[in-house]
Amino acid sequence: MATITAALSVTSDVTEYGIGISKTMTMTKAGTNTGLEKATGLVRKTLTSINEVDLLTVGSGTVTDVTSTVTAANKLYIKNINTDSSEYFTVGLGKASTGSAKENFDMADSNERSVELGRLYSGDFMIIPWSATATNYNDVFVKPSVATSMVIEYMVFYEE
Amino acid sequence: MATTTASLTITSADLVGDALSLSSSSNLNKAGTTTGLDQTTGMAHVYLTATTSIDLFPILPASPAGQNKQSWVYICNKATDETHYVTITIANTIIGQLYAGDFLWMPWSQIAQYADIELAPSTAAAAAGIRVEYTCFHEGLTLPTSADS
User: Fold this and answer.
1) Which residues on adjacent β-strands are paired with residue A89?
2) Does A89 fall in a domain?
3) What is the sign of the dihedral through the CA atoms of A157, A41, A126 and A8?
4) A23, A139, A145: which to substitute to probe chain B, counting the most B Cβ within 10 Å?
5) What is the pLDDT of residues B32-50, one digit of tens each?
6) Complex ipTM
7) pLDDT digits (tens, 9 = 90+) for B126-139
8) Window A:38-67, CB contacts with B under 8 Å
9) What is the residue range of A125's domain?
10) Domains, chain B, with CATH or none
11) What is the pTM of this model?
12) Residue B4 and residue A116: Cβ atoms within 8 Å?
């Protein structure tokens, strides 16, 4: 078993009294104190079109052996490492359109569900739990805002 | 202009052959700018005793105030029992489970109605009671219209 920790710190003067977050989590298997043992490694991708593409496809590629039960405790880290403040990646869950148009936001379609989570602008990062339950539901897609070279890095920590 | 800085460090001495250490830091800015986000919901702390799925932030209308703007969400499961978890959902799609001590940090697109971020305690967590903390830094969020007027 491995010990993997993620420490988040947020400092803000957005209110007169400020807001601070300082939180460390140890990544463990679902419902246990046993650490996660698997990781994809830090993946770096350069995207040169505005096509919406899968970054992670449940059950294939770098995450072929990821546990895909709904209660799994997988963790996903993604970072936009570009420097232009106006350029961003749209990150979402579900089926990627594979084209320049976004897949329709359609939570009723059981086969092609697609939902946008948020946008990572230059330097932004995110860390979320990832259920990886089913292809086309929990695939992770990204869509660059521009067709010039944009670089994204990501890593999955997961249960097997 | 406010300055909000988020930093994340992921480390492990024994996951792979060499020590792993990833460090990231960024300022939270308004969409496409270098101007800092200037609004927040404040840090909320709730105690939940039912498995009912709840919206953490005001229900998004058809055209949210935060549409095409930037928002950041933090959610932390404050439970100490490792079997107690909460399920985080957006638009009827499960993002994942936060077990005791877990947190998430993610951008949030208030793109449209139904893109609300929802949370549901597990059965065991609800039975025991579970504490959750959450906040949102943003540049626009539609608040509910008063029903008293």
Assistant:
1) A120, A144
2) yes
3) positive
4) A23
5) 999 999 999 999 999 999 9
6) 0.96
7) 999 999 999 999 99
8) 39, 41-42
9) 29-158
10) 40-138 (2.60.120.10)
11) 0.95
12) no
Residue A2 lies in a domain: no
Identify which of B105, B121, B61, B75 has the alpha carbon closest to the alpha carbon of residue A117.
Answer: B105
pLDDT: which is higher, B13 or B115: B13
A88 falls within a domain: yes
Residues of chain A with pLDDT under 70: 104-112, 135-136
The count of domains in chain A is 1
Of A108-112, A145-149, B66-70, B79-83, the poorest mean pLDDT is in A108-112
Contact between B84 and A93 under an 8 Å Cβ cutoff? The reply is: no
Instruction: Please report, as a single letter, which amino acid is at residue B86.
Output: V
Q: What is the pLDDT of residue A31?
A: 95
Backbone dihedral region for residue B49 (phi beyond 0: left; psi -120 to 50: alpha; all else: beta): alpha
User: Where residue A154 sits, what CATH number does that domain have?
Assistant: 2.60.120.770
CA angle B12/B18/B24 to nearest 5° reads: 50
B102 at the A interface (CB within 8 A)? yes
Give the type of residue at B17. Answer: G
